[in-house]
Amino acid sequence: MRLNKWLAQAGIAARRKCDRLIEEGRVQVNGRVVCKMGVKVDPETDVIVFDGSRAKAPPSFVYVLLNKPAGVLVSRKDPQGRPTVFDLVQLKKRLFSVGRLDLDTEGVLLLTNDGALCRRLSHPSFKVEKVYEALVEGIPDRKALNALREGVMLKGEASKPKGKRQKAKGEVEKHAKACLTAPAKVKLKRIVDRSALLELTLHEGRKRQVKRMCEAVGHRVTRLVRTRFAELSAKGLPPGRWRFLTALEITRLQSLDKR
């Protein structure tokens, strides 16, 4: 592993800044000052010192892909005792979900203890591609499909006012703001009796976005499955089952993080 990468993973600084720290002679490997770029270290055997103190080894990160079934919460605990994704994925390491899925939404969910990557992939500025299959009531016409593609106005999600207590009845609604969704890819995959199966590709992550978009054009969602997150797919993975990401999948996620 390259020294600058090791230092960055150990939380010393971002990788580019770690390069400068190395050039400034502030890093030692096995008792010798290292000032050159591209030096490789063995995390198992090498002793790395920064500014006179031994640097702690980088944390061991875990990346899990879960095919979330309906009826399971994306939450650590539930006061009502309903099952959560952490009942399905029981590991010693404390994991976090990258984004969320509603209680009745199924499909791809990424869990990790890599907090930095989790925060970045969840941030709207990274525009991570998410693909959903939505079964909706009725058959959307061309106008409705084009509206979904071009962006629809969603009613604002009510939020509590700032302060220790809510002032007057109706105060919550004052803070609700309407928003226009970003353009999306939308396909009518097939018609099932009096319903339609839509595939929607989004780069946003607003609360209940797919359901709200479809309702805005007059079609209620009766089933929603996220089939892909970035390049991660749950193909071949039964609902409720999980697996560790492959090295290639992790590398691709990390490359998204650097865009």
Task: Give me the number of helical elements.
Answer: 8
Identify the quaternary structure here.
single chain
Q: Which runs of at least 5 residues are low in confidence (pLDDT < 50)?
A: 159-174
Q: What is the succession of H and E elements?
A: HHEEEEEHEEHEHEHEEEHEEEH
What about the largest sheet? 9 strands, mixed
Mean pLDDT: 89
Helix content: 10-25%
Number-wise, the strands total 15
Structural class: alpha+beta
Please identify the top-level CATH class of the largest domain: Alpha Beta
Domain count: 3
- What is the annotated CATH architecture of the largest domain? 2-Layer Sandwich
CATH superfamily of the largest domain: Pseudouridine synthase I, catalytic domain, N-terminal subdomain
> Compute the gyration radius: what is it?
23 Å
Please state the overall shape, judged from the principal axes of the Cα atoms: elongated
Give the N-terminus to C-terminus distance in angstroms. Answer: 21 Å
CATH topology term of the largest domain: Alpha-Beta Plaits
If you had to describe this structure to a student in words, what would you say it looks like?
The chain folds into 3 domains: 3-54, Roll (Structural Genomics Hypothetical 15.5 Kd Protein In mrcA-pckA Intergenic Region, Chain A); 59-126 and 237-259, 2-Layer Sandwich (Alpha-Beta Plaits); 129-156 and 176-229, Alpha-Beta Plaits, CATH 3.30.70. It starts with a helix and ends with a helix. The chain is built from 8 helices and 15 strands. It is elongated. Strands 5, 6, 7, 8, 11, 12, 13, 14 and 15 form a 9-stranded mixed β-sheet that branches. Residues 159-174 have low confidence and may be disordered. The chain is an alpha+beta fold.
